[in-house]
Design brief:
The two termini are 91 Å apart. 17% of the residues are buried. The strands form two sheets. A three-stranded antiparallel sheet has the order 2-1-3, with no helix packed on it. Strands 4-5-6 form a three-stranded antiparallel sheet. The longest helix has 44 residues. It is mostly helical. The protein is globular.
């Protein structure tokens, strides 16, 4: 392996020899002058050692011929002198770095630079909350514009033409329920939001009062639409069996709306939950001492109440739709649809009879249990 040797120049005798260990003070092997920093030369001057590094093939060539203690009193062997030394390696990966002990290494001082003071953490949090609050309000306004646009498209491209010409369908207006009332109340909501955003100030502009004013009108209109949604879907399915009606729906979808009529019809069902998510996020990123905080909390509570009523209305609509299917599937003209009655479940059971047990289909309601033979059930079941 390669090793590192050091050339030391003695101030007393100007000898240049190679010492095997460059990091320990050694005496000159020709004149025995001490080259340590605290030593004195023959002239009374402090000894110095000038060191230069270069790679050699091996340090074994400079070992003494014998290893006994008597060699200490012998004349040191002479080494061949070199007129020119190779240049010292500049690579940071040289073996010199490897021979340096970890304890002798000191970290370099960091270069002077500009000291920057970090802003307080509370200020950063307030800035992030204000930025997020602005983003939520912008999203609320943008999604409201899109929603109103799609509701108007449903009315202008489907409801109005079918009202003028049913295309062979009976009562096509039942498909769209009270969508025109929803369009009217959301137009008012959009107008209020645009007015507030025109002079938006994150510290003083209020949003919660808008929902407190419009909320009482949202509840009845959206609840009515939700209750009739399942019935509207069933009526649309029946109307689509008429070729003239279905051709009209397909043509308008392909050429104008790019969205199916069912995709447009479900948007009012999804709008109230969307309000809840946005208001909840807005409350989360509004300071407790903000002027709008009190109204926002009340508005969020109001919209959650509307959402709960809509979910209840959806379940009731599905329940009525299921009872209508059961009523139509059992022959004999039985009527099961009642305002207080709720469908629970149905399935196949083994009825214990006098002579032999028979399989029957059972329907369980909250106040009634009905069973029928498979021959009495129509294909709809």
């Amino acid at each position: 392996c390669e090793a590192i040797a050091v050339q030391t120049m003695c101030d007393s005798c100007n000898c240049k020899e190679f010492l095997p260990n460059p990091w320990k003070p050694e005496k000159c092997i020709n004149c025995y002058h001490d080259h340590s920093p605290n030593s004195q030369t023959a002239n009374g001057q402090q000894g110095t050692a000038k060191r230069m590094l270069f790679p050699v093939a091996s340090t074994r060539n400079i070992e003494a011929s014998t290893s006994t203690e008597d060699n200490l009193s012998m004349t040191p062997p002479s080494f061949p002198k070199r007129d020119r030394l190779p240049s010292a390696p500049t690579s940071s990966n040289s073996t010199l770095n490897e021979s340096t002990s970890q304890s002798s290494r000191r970290p370099l001082p960091k270069p002077p630079g500009k000291t920057t003071t970090k802003p307080p953490q509370n200020e950063n949090q307030n800035e992030k909350a204000a930025s997020h609050r602005n983003h939520i309000v912008q999203e609320l306004l943008t999604t409201e514009r899109d929603f109103v646009k799609y509701v108007k498209t449903l009315i202008a491209e489907f409801l109005v033409p079918l009202r003028e010409d049913p295309r062979g369908a009976k009562n096509p207006e039942l498909i769209f329920s009270n969508i025109e009332q929803i369009n009217g109340i959301n137009d008012v909501l959009l107008k209020h939001l645009e007015e507030q955003m025109a002079s938006w100030n994150n510290d003083s502009t209020k949003i919660g009062n808008i929902f407190l004013e419009v909320g009482p009108y949202l509840k009845p209109y959206y609840t009515t639409y939700t209750e009739k949604y399942a019935e509207a879907q069933s009526h649309l399915t029946e109307c689509e069996k008429i070729s003239q009606f279905s051709n009209f729906i397909e043509t308008v979808t392909a050429e104008k709306t790019k969205l199916t009529v069912r995709s447009l019809m479900i948007m009012p069902i999804q709008r109230i939950p969307r309000y809840n998510l946005l208001l909840e996020d807005l409350v989360k990123h509004t300071p407790s001492d903000h002027v709008d905080m009190h109204d926002l909390e009340k508005a969020l509570k109001k919209m959650k109440s509307i959402a709960d009523d809509i979910n209840t209305a959806i379940k009731q609509g599905e329940n009525r739709q299921k009872m209508l299917i059961i009523q139509e599937s059992i022959s004999g003209g039985h009527k099961f649809l009642e305002p207080h009655r709720q469908y629970i479940r149905d399935g196949q059971l083994l009825k214990v009879c006098r002579k032999t047990n028979k399989m029957r289909w059972f329907f369980l309601f909250n106040d009634l249990l009905v069973y029928a033979s498979f021959g009495a059930l129509t294909s709809t079941m």
